[in-house]
Amino acid sequence: MTITDPTQTDISTSEDLLDGIRSVLERGVENGACHPSWAAAALDILAEGASLASDEGVYAAHIVHRSLRAEASKDGPPVSRIATMRAPDLRVWRAGSDRQALPDRTPEELRAFAGLVSERRSTPMYGSEPLPVEHLAGILRQSFGVTGFELGYQRRDIPKRVGASAGGLQSYDCQIIVNDVASLAPGRYSYDPIENDLILEEAGDLRLPLLDATIESDFIVSAQAVLAITGDFPRVSWKYGTRGYRYMGLDAGIVTAHVYLAATALGVSVNALAAFADDRVNNLLRLDGKEQFVQLLIPIGTPPGPKRQ
Question: What is the pLDDT at residue 141?
Answer without folding.
Answer: 97
